[in-house]
Specification:
homodimer; alpha/beta; Aldehyde Dehydrogenase, Chain A, domain 1; about 35% helix
């Protein structure tokens, strides 16, 4: 594929006008061709105009038609796997296996949403029949279900160039819901975005979808990113990235004349609690933990950045962790900004008097390399210094010694909202630490038992969300089928004849979906 | 019941300190005893402390236990019906029938939510079983469901002293979800609030619930209302009221370190489109329309404030409407503020050159009385002056002449988000105006066919919501069982043994609820 370095605005290409940039190979520091042209606000206007127009048509597509569209996107992505892998590794320093794995995950997500909307029950259709003779007032016939919100803006994630970028989970769930998607590319992997974007555009054409159902814009977050979130026709936003970046979008969205939801997945330290009984299995836990910590150079939002355990066995465990961590080699991070932030965070933690360094794989602070780092501190010191709980995005973790249930509960209570919270325990621990899990349930979107938080399964029951500041709105998830309702709203039809109702609500249930009729699930 | 004029803060009474006020009988203008003491920020702090403490216990209650609590509240309210009716009519000028009806609706809602949580399937439990042998990575066991958010603040609505106040729909859905509720009373009906609050408190004691599961605060919206929304332990807000009031709360909630959802139901003109075929039945429509317009002195958020029809038959229809409206008598509004706002809105519309007055039941502009008013204008004039679409809260409506499908679509497209949109049509009209309903579906939360928007049925399929500015967030509803998820978030348990899971997620399904297991609804 010849990369053109220009945005995809419906069926057209962008012509730039607001600067230009090139991707950089983080391993070599070399700039990659081609030049990418940055769009300005006119292109935002055009993409929104096309999306608004497309919404009128796309929202009326059946589940089957939308499913075919999603599967065609997946097929088109499969067809360019080699080009994706080559460009993605060059742009991100991610190894080939990860690139192929993430491509597989991306296509799996698209096909899972296709299955979901083809089957159709996700709309949560409910019917209450009329009772014309009810006294004192007759009861009307009411039918309701989820309907699409409108054009959705998706921001590509630096750390998921495929699975949370152009045709990733946010886009897949928005398309599945019936919403056009405008993607804002990430500056660190524009080529990967263009390859996937071209695949999506091919699927749009093959399936006869309106062109505005997809646009991909290159340009600055501060200009076109903000302009997209402000645009009156945009109805929701999907974002995975930094806390500052997410908050800026949330504030913009909240200040609109008609505020819109921003589904931002931001930061999390993903605490891992190791209870005394489980500590006896410390060798296996240490291995699993260091594997989770260093996976993908620690560049996962579910990276375990905090480990809490009691006194007994802790120093042996810390020794094992330190020894395993020291055996890992420094690796290249996604881009210079992430590497600098990592070195700064590690430096700040190192500088704290109350923190000791248990393992520190050195890497030149001026480079894009990151080595695993493990720190140690006490519960008292941790509780006295809130900044110890800040995320260090990368392969770094802080081990906190918290002896006894009360101290462990205090640490748990002190935590902000998290994507995940993990507990390693035996049956015996469960009795002694019965209150811990209840506390953690209030703090996290996903609780992990005797496992590790990385490796977010794409399945019906998955919740990748959690209370603020882990996300902007912890009520939903950005992974798995439950994510679809983020881009919908409820609509009720009262007193309508069958021929004016959506198929999902027609009396005889032609789609054969599960519905709640007069309060009873069928 | 002896009214004490003091807040209910858990099991204690407030001691005021931030001023005092009395309710006013809107019919006579007389002040009603007793004096109500306004609370300050210390009481907010105390109510939030109690609610936070209560949440830890209340969230662990089973569906059955919470159902008993809701039913006991309903029973306690039933037991004081006569006191409620006497005080409520004195405070609001609402007729006895309406007071009894609203009491019935309030208790019905509480019992409907009780049935919902006793049955239990509302939690949307999903289970994906582990596949330990899956290659290349084993699949973990994941289970998820809705869990309560935490303390919820509910603002009493001036126009629903029972059904959207102390133990109304917002409170019932929050309690049903597992959340403690702190209610901010409305200044115009504090006595009704105290009677109902006392009933709730009796139910709290009878059911052995933690005292902080309910508090009722008297005081100023600007001080304690804002303080409640800012409080870090408060997790969500329910509000029914003015656009300015709702927006102020939304802005406060969005500016928090951890923004929280504000479910605000604000303003709507509820357009009614009468298509040419249906116009032949204009006599029946005129009767239904004037009934809907003047119901409860027009003080419903679903009041039909806009009627759009073609040329043919319009003047005869307008004549019928005018004649029926003129036969209605002026009636007393809920309080002086509402009456003044109504007279001002009617005055502003009257002053427009492009608007004619079709019927105007005169009432002294300085009084609390309101008479029915019907205005007329053309589509062109309506489209040229956005302020014609502003809500006139009360029994006033604007009839717009829009000849032909294109013009009607233009009027529909020009509208802001609405709670409802109504179409009167025959089969013949449906072909000719096929695009109208699709446009209205994007504008409203509920579409009504050959009916009227007032009289919101409390049922499983009801949606009382709609795009901004009708509500702050049109994704949900404030009426009916679907409202419960407004006060929840998703939580996932990964790899947990049965004895650590909530009952809803235990493998053998001891509660017998409907669940999605490995993607299949059972």
């Amino acid at each position: 594929m010849d990369l053109q370095g220009r945005s995809l605005i419906g069926a057209a290409r962008g012509s730039g006008g607001a600067g230009e940039s090139k991707a950089v190979n983080p391993t070599t520091g070399e700039e990659l061709e081609p030049v990418y042209l940055s769009e300005g606000e006119e292109s935002v206007e055009e993409a929104c105009r096309l999306a608004t127009e497309a919404f009128l048509e796309y929202r009326e597509k059946s589940g089957k038609e939308k499913a075919t569209f999603l599967r065609t996107i997946a097929d088109e992505i499969d067809a360019v796997e080699e080009e994706i892998v080559a460009r993605m590794s060059a742009e991100t320093a991610l190894p080939e296996g990860r690139c192929r794995g993430e491509k597989g995950r991306t296509c799996f997500q698209l096909r899972l949403f296709a299955d979901l909307i083809e089957e159709g029950s996700w709309v949560d259709a409910r019917i209450d029949h009329a009772e014309p003779d009810r006294a004192p007032l007759s009861k009307p016939d009411c039918r309701s279900m989820w309907r699409p919100l409108g054009p959705v803006v998706v921001f590509c994630a630096s750390n998921f160039p495929l699975a949370y970028s152009v045709a990733g989970g946010d886009s897949a769930s928005a398309w599945a819901a019936g919403c056009p998607v405008i993607v804002k590319a990430h500056a660190s992997h524009p080529g990967t975005a263009e390859i996937v974007g071209t695949a999506v555009r091919a699927a749009v054409a093959k399936c006869g979808m309106p062109e505005g159902v997809f646009s991909l814009l290159f340009g600055s977050g501060r200009t076109i990113g903000q302009a997209l979130v402000k645009h009156p026709q945009v109805r929701a936003v999907g974002f995975t990235g930094s806390r500052a970046g997410g908050r800026a979008l949330m504030d913009t969205a909240a200040a609109r004349a008609e505020p819109i939801p921003v589904w931002a997945e931001m930061s999390s330290v993903n605490p891992v609690f190791i209870l005394p009984g489980a500590m006896k299995e410390r060798e296996a836990i240490a291995q699993g933990f260091v594997g989770s910590l260093t996976l993908g150079v620690g560049q996962f939002c579910t990276n375990p950045g905090l480990v809490i355990s009691g006194r007994e066995g802790r120093s042996a465990f810390a020794g094992q962790v330190a020894s395993l961590a020291s055996e890992t080699a420094p690796a290249t991070m996604l881009h210079k900004g992430i590497a600098s932030a990592y070195h700064a965070a590690v430096g700040a933690m190192t500088a704290k008097d109350a923190v000791e360094s248990l393992a520190h794989v050195e890497a030149d602070a001026g480079s894009r390399l990151a080595g695993a780092v493990v720190f140690g501190t006490s519960a008292d010191d941790f509780l006295a210094d809130q900044s110890m709980a800040d995320e260090m995005f990368g392969p770094a973790s802080l081990m906190v010694e918290a002896e006894g249930e009360e101290r462990m509960l205090a640490v748990a209570e002190s935590l902000e909202g998290q994507l995940t919270a993990t507990v390693h325990a035996t049956e015996e621990d469960r009795e002694q630490f019965s209150r811990l899990i209840a506390v953690l349930e209030r703090k996290a979107g996903r609780l992990v038992y005797n496992g590790f938080p990385t490796g977010v399964e794409v399945c019906h029951a998955m919740v990748h969300g959690g209370p603020a500041p882990a996300t902007s709105d912890g009520s939903s998830t950005s992974v798995g089928p439950r994510a679809i309702t983020r881009f919908t709203r409820l609509v009720c039809w009262q007193g309508f004849p069958d021929d004016l109702l959506p198929e999902e609500l027609v009396e005889e249930n032609p789609l054969g979906i599960s519905r709640i009729v007069d309060g009873v699930r069928g």
